[in-house]
Amino acid sequence: MPIPAESLLLLSLIAVPFLGSVIAACMPSNARNMESILAGGVALYGLIVTIYLYQYVGNGEPVRYSAEWLPSLGLEFLLRLDGLAWLFAMLVLGVGLLVVLYARYYMSDEDPVPRFFAFLLAFMGSMLGVVLSGNLIQLVVFWELTSVTSFLLIGYWHHRIDARRGARMAFTVTATGGLCLLCGVLILGHIVGSYDLDTVLAAGDIIRAHTLYLPALILIALGALTKSAQFPFHFWLPHAMAAPTPVSSYLHSATMVKAGIFLLMRLWPSLSGTPEWTWLIAGAGVCTLLIGSFVAIFQHDLKGLLAYSTISHLGLITTLLGIGTPLGVVAAIFHTLNHAIFKASLFMAAGIIDHETGTRDMRVLRGLRKALPITATLAVVASASMAGVPLLNGFLSKEMFFAETLHVGGSDNWWMSYAAVAMGIFSVAYSLRFISVFFGKLPDDLPKEPHEPPHWMRFPVEFLVLLCLIVGIIPGISVGPYLHQSVEAVLGEQTPVYSLSVWHGLNLPLAMSVVALVGGILFYVILRKYFTLQQRADVPVLHRISGAQAYETAMLQLSAAANFLVKWLGTRRLQPQLFLIVVAMIGVPWLLAGPLPVLKPASYTNVEPLFGVMWLIGCACALTAAWQAKFHRLAALILVGGVGVVTSMTFLWLSAPDLALTQLMVETVTAVLILLGLRWLPRRLPPKELQNGLQIPRSVWLRRSRDFVLAAIGGLAIAGISYVVLMHPQPDSIGNYFLARALPEGGGTNVVNVLLVDFRGFDTMGEITVLAIVALTVYALLRRFRPAAESIAIPEQQMNNTDPAALQTPAEQVDKGYLHVPSVYLRFLLPFMGVIVVYFFMRGHNLPGGGFVAGLIFAVAIIVQYMIAGTQWVESHIHLRPLRWITWGLVVAACTGAGAMVLGFPFLTSHTAHLTLPILGEVHAPSAFMFDLGVFLVVVGSTMLILVALAHQTVRSRRPQAGGTPDTVVLPKRGAT
Fold first, then answer.
1. Each residue's pLDDT tens digit, 562-597
2. Would you state the pLDDT for residue 964?
3. Any idea what DSSP says for residue 361?
4. Cα separations (Å) of 656 from 299, 595, 652?
5. What is d(CA 272, CA 328) in angstroms, rounded to the nearest whole number?
6. What is the DSSP letter of 274?
7. Label partner for 212 (CA 20 to 30 A): which of 74, 152, 661, 708?
8. Which residues contact 186 (CB under 8 A, 6 or more apart)?
């Protein structure tokens, strides 16, 4: 069934920002305009698509996109765009577009702009994922992505201590809340029996009546309150102001801090309507709005004032949602929109002041209206909206808030109304404090001479302030229909009748607004005149209570506890760690295991003597390798290789040629790579070389005896488990399922290969990703590795002066020494090995072979060239570029899976085309061929990367620069002799 166009557009809303993030990260650092155009284009595209999709949302028909995710668990990747999600998507994309334009002029030439826009677009995609998710588990995944990307944005200026501290604090608090949210969502899914959002929203009565309602409510509330900086978790937001101002104006006005608010709105039908909801949510909101508004008055940093005012307004919205009335939800959604508009403009105005004056300290800023007259006018209007001045958008939603506090308290309980008026008074006072920087005499000692910014840097502020006026004057026309769709998406049939008129007559909410305005002005004048507001170093009363200090104390206590555990339970030695692991692996199953089943005795009548002798040889190799490993590493490696060969022969004996071939090639490659690594380990002295007749202490003998006994017990336990499993009666094997479906559904007769690239393709995708990560890690470690001094010298075997080869470099040995003939032979052999690689790769879907085996064979061909011709000759003649092999392998494999999703099938679903070609006739072309090609590229690239890292270690040690050391070596350029 084809996917509707609107569903694909909905999917693109999330996919395009993440794709843009990857592209932005790959752009050069000096492509400033290109990066901002890319980011702006992504936001503009999303905005256009969201506006286009309103034709469906406006008719009350949510737009959906679904794809199988974890069908065995009943989970789908589900996107859902209704009225509420549409409004939040417009905020994320609209404010995001303005922030991108603003950042183009705000960011310095020295700032790594590609990284900034990459993080910003990734955050945009994560936030859109939160608001569009139609599945609760999926919502939590995107929720945590917002925590990660916001951490990167807040810590963007990582050279500053305050940025690093603020990023860590924000991430710790919000990520911990995310874990609580995950637990709450799991409980919610358990109650309802589904994680589908529509099902959860329709099961409100079942959820509220369940015994697990309260734990689910507390955990989900912790997730929402931590993300939206509500008491007592509000302390992280002011410290996040260390981020660049574009980040603050985006994350802390319209997006990140609104995620918790969005979650409370989204789950309001399922969780609200109980005393527990009201006390928990509304209680946190009231405490937050009072604390935030009061502390904001005494801030001296412009962004600090805006941060605490944001906390206060978020508390206002949370209180409205906690009240639990339908009109409270209407007011909460309306104020969410209004706050995003005026707060984003104020953050940008503060950034302009900082950008043009070099400071945000309100104790030195004054008279700026003379140097920045347009910016001053815009900031005054936005501040008036924040204060709740009539004919501006902030006045309307704040008056609705006053009305709801009167309604919930009735005629007897006025405490919430008093709190609302107090918050209104405080908000007027801090708004006056903000605009005070524009009045007075302009100082002469500012870090920069202030002047108006470029017009396009100021344009976002102008546009947002214009919206404040439009919404404040004609709210019903400008935002009425969109607000109604959002409210209806939350309340459904409970949607109340409400009015967005500017004038509702002379009533008590209007009187409360007047009291707040007049009281705020008087309060600010009194503070400024009699309490030296400009010089206060702390907040009255509340300065003794610091959430940030409590956080730091908790982190220090955790570090101290961790250090205590490491001191008494940890060790840097590997042997004690292995001892504890093995003890746990033996002891825990022994304690948990029940009575062993009664098994029939094994029959040995069909045992092949040759098979038994082969296994005896393998066991002997294993035991001897363990005995020789300490002092004779080379012998131990050879013996371990013998074990691998026996394992390969066992697979072959048991009719598993694919496994046998793979095991044999893995043994070959790993043996060579480990052999190259052993070269750099310091030599260990055998007992006969110990001087002065040193005797081994008794404690060492006891420890070795203990370890030997433990190893023997562990080996016997594994052998016993294997015996029990093999002798236990087996149910029907799943092998029959794959045997029956390999050809008709996977398009191949080699069941093992079809299993890897089709039925279990997702597992293989994870495995090659891990392989690539391991290769990159090994490469990074070896680049920093410097061997011990005693390991740098040439081995004794190469220091024989009577051997002509000892006087030659590796390149000379290849050109005119004893390796000349083998090197020529192996160079001719390389193309033939390439043919063998193609043969095994092409036949892998029907016969033993495939991308993994072919990759290992090709890697062996390259390894042989390195061993014979040497590093410099190979790299001057063959351009390997292993990083590109790994990159293209992962890209090809991922695109193969994504192609199936585009066509409406699950990720990595395989399809087979039957093509008729000249001469060749009918050819089967499965899509798994491209996935197998990705596996081949990753295997080759990973092996070559590790090989190159080891080979370069040899070059660094043997070819030092003049007057330098082996640690400071520059490899010769390609083609140089």
1. 888 888 777 777 778 888 888 888 888 877 776 766
2. 41
3. B
4. 73, 34, 5
5. 12
6. S
7. 74
8. none
How is residue 201 annotated by DSSP?
H
In the Cβ-directed half-sphere of 149, how many Cα atoms lie within 13 Å?
29
Token pair recorded at residue 340 = 């995003």
Tokens of 465: 């302030």
DSSP state of 80: E
Is residue 872 pLDDT above 90, yes or no?
Answer: no
Torsion of the alpha carbons at 265, 485, 196 and 21, rounded to the nearest 10 = -80
Nearest to 67 by CA among 81, 83, 79, 54: 79
Is residue 323 within 8 Å of residue 408, measured between CB atoms? yes
Q: What is the DSSP letter of 721?
A: H
Give the per-residue pLDDT at 119. Answer: 95
Sign of CA dihedral 806, 810, 813, 818: positive
Rg over CA atoms, the chain: 35
| SS3 of residue 697 by DSSP | coil
- With helix as H, strand as E and coil as C, how does 227-254 read? HCCCCCCCCHHHHHHHCCHHHHHHHCCC
Measure Cα distances from 636 to 480, 552, 631, 642, 689 in Å.
79, 51, 9, 10, 20
CA-nearest of 240, 262, 261 to 251 is 240
483/500 Cα distance (integer angstroms): 10
Nearest to 50 by CA among 19, 92, 22, 78: 92
Helix axes 302-323, 393-409, angle to 10 degrees: 40
Rounded alpha-carbon distances, angstroms, from residue 293 to 252, 317, 412, 524, 527? 16, 14, 26, 13, 15
Of 351, 259, 277, 276, whose CA–CA distance to 314 is shortest?
259
Number of H helices, E strands in the chain: 41, 4
State both tokens at 526. 């009194």
Q: Per-residue DSSP letters for 792-807?
A: HSPPGGG--TTSGGGG
Q: HSE on the CB side for 271, CA within 13 Å?
A: 31
Q: Average the pLDDT over 417-443 and give the result.
A: 92
How far apart CA 712 and CA 533 sit, in angstroms, is: 76
Which helix H or strand E contains 31, and what residues bound it?
A: none
Using alpha carbons, select from 893, 877, 875 the residue that is nearest to residue 885.
893
Average pLDDT, the chain: 86
Q: How far apart are the first and last CA of the chain?
A: 62
* Cα 652 from Cα 848, distance rounded (Å): 11
pLDDT classification of 688: cutoffs 50, 70, 90: low
- Report the distance separating Cα 490 and Cα 483, nearest Å: 11
Residue 198 amino acid letter: D
Burial of 591 (0-12, 13-18, 19+ CB in 10 A): exposed
Q: What residue has token string 């974890």?
A: 70
**% of the chain beyond a pLDDT of 70:** 91
pLDDT bracket for residue 977 (50, 70, 90): very low
Q: Can you name the residues that pair with 80 across neighbouring β-strands?
A: 64
User: What are the tokens at 523?
Assistant: 């309060």
- Read off the tokens for 576: 């004690």
| Residue 539, SS3 per DSSP | coil
Entry field: residues in the chain: 977
Going by C-beta distance under 8 Å and a sequence separation of 6 or more, which residues neighbour residue 739?
751
* pLDDT tens for each residue of 355-401: 999 899 998 999 999 899 999 999 999 999 999 999 999 999 999 99
Phi, psi of 517 (to 5 degrees): -65, -50
Longest dimension (CA), the chain: 112
Residue found under tokens 């990083």: 883
What is the residue type of 43?
Answer: A
Q: How far is CA 489 from the centre of its chain?
A: 30
Rank 11-15, 111-115, 829-833 by mean pLDDT and report only the highest. Answer: 11-15
In terms of Cα–Cα distance, which of 692, 750, 789 is closest to 929?
750
